[in-house]
């Protein structure tokens, strides 16, 4: 009987560094936890086809009705799965390189 | 992996002018690029392609091992970039060397004090190593 052992999830304390949770320093754990929290505050939705369609520039696949999408403060849209994977490495928009946290804090400040 | 197939199809249909990039027959992540090699790591497009010059080249931003000093291959990588944009950036770097951010210090030094001599050597190296005569 074989059991496939799943690889432990990797975290990215900085874009080029990947480590499993067990090898993160306390400071890195805090940074990553904050990052995960911020990501959940970004609006997301289901692509319903009413707005102009296009492709997710990360996976290069067209959005289809029912896809889970996330909207960044700069108004760029990606598949939730694609952008979340990137945001855990770098908190910037892949298309305009705008830092997402600055834009997020601005939104809070003005509302 | 689907993204790599899509991207490869587009790259074959509309190649970058002046650069030939051909996928390896047995490894879809490996590309033969004129005088360079390009490898898409497991994490691509979340991490940058690895690009290296296979022939010697006289350029202030490329070292003896063919490693390239280019921001988008390091900390300025974005998953919205593609093989096409990487090739275009390398092409731009080749035509506009940046001796103020050098990787090959001796080359950068000559580029700053005697640009015409540096360009002469670069031409000679290209003839010798890239064109094979």
TrEMBL record, chain A:
One of its GO terms (molecular function) is ubiquitin protein ligase activity. SUPFAM superfamilies: RING/U-box. It comes from the Eukaryota. InterPro entries: RNF11_RING-H2 (IPR042981), UEC_component (IPR052804), Znf_RING (IPR001841), Znf_RING/FYVE/PHD (IPR013083). Residues 56-96 form the RING-type domain. PROSITE patterns: ZF_RING_2. Pfam families: zf-RING_2 (PF13639). Keywords: Metal-binding, Zinc, Zinc-finger. One of its GO terms (biological process) is ubiquitin-dependent protein catabolic process. GO terms for cellular component: ubiquitin ligase complex. This is RING finger protein 11-like. It comes from Homarus americanus (American lobster). The lineage of its organism: Eukaryota, Metazoa, Ecdysozoa, Arthropoda, Crustacea.
UniProtKB/TrEMBL annotation, chain B:
PROSITE patterns: UBC_1 (PS00183), UBC_2 (PS50127). InterPro entries: UBC (IPR000608), UBQ-conjugating_AS (IPR023313), UBQ-conjugating_enzyme/RWD (IPR016135). Keywords: ATP-binding, Nucleotide-binding, Transferase, Ubl conjugation pathway. GO terms for molecular function: ATP binding; transferase activity. SMART domains: UBCc. The active site is at 69 (glycyl thioester intermediate). SUPFAM superfamilies: UBC-like. It comes from the Eukaryota. Residues 1-131 form the UBC core domain. Gene3D superfamilies: Ubiquitin Conjugating Enzyme. PANTHER family: UBIQUITIN-CONJUGATING ENZYME E2. Belongs to the ubiquitin-conjugating enzyme family. This is Ubiquitin-conjugating enzyme E2 N-like. It comes from Homarus americanus (American lobster).
């Amino acid at each position: 009987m074989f059991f496939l052992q799943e690889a432990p999830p990797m975290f990215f304390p900085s874009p080029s560094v990947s480590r499993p949770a067990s090898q993160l320093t306390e400071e890195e754990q805090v940074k990553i936890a904050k990052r995960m929290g911020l990501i959940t505050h970004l609006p997301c939705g289901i692509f319903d086809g009413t707005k102009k369609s296009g492709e997710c520039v990360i996976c290069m696949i067209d959005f289809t009705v029912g896809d889970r999408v996330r909207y960044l403060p700069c108004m760029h849209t990606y598949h939730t799965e694609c952008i979340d994977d990137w945001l855990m490495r770098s908190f910037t928009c892949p298309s305009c390189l705008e830092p997402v946290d600055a834009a997020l804090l601005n939104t809070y400040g003005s509302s | 992996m689907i993204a790599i197939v899509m991207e490869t199809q587009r790259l074959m249909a509309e190649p970058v002018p002046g650069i030939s990039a051909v996928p390896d027959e047995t490894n879809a992540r490996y590309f033969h690029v004129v005088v360079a090699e390009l490898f898409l790591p497991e994490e691509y497009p979340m991490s940058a392609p690895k690009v290296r010059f296979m022939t010697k080249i006289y350029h202030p931003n490329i070292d003896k091992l063919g490693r390239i000093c280019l921001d988008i291959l390091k900390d300025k990588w974005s998953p919205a970039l593609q093989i096409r944009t990487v090739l275009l950036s390398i092409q731009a770097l080749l035509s506009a060397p940046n001796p103020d951010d050098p990787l090959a210090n001796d080359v950068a030094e000559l580029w700053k004090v005697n640009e015409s001599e540096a360009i002469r050597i670069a031409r000679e190296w290209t003839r010798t190593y890239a064109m094979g005569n």
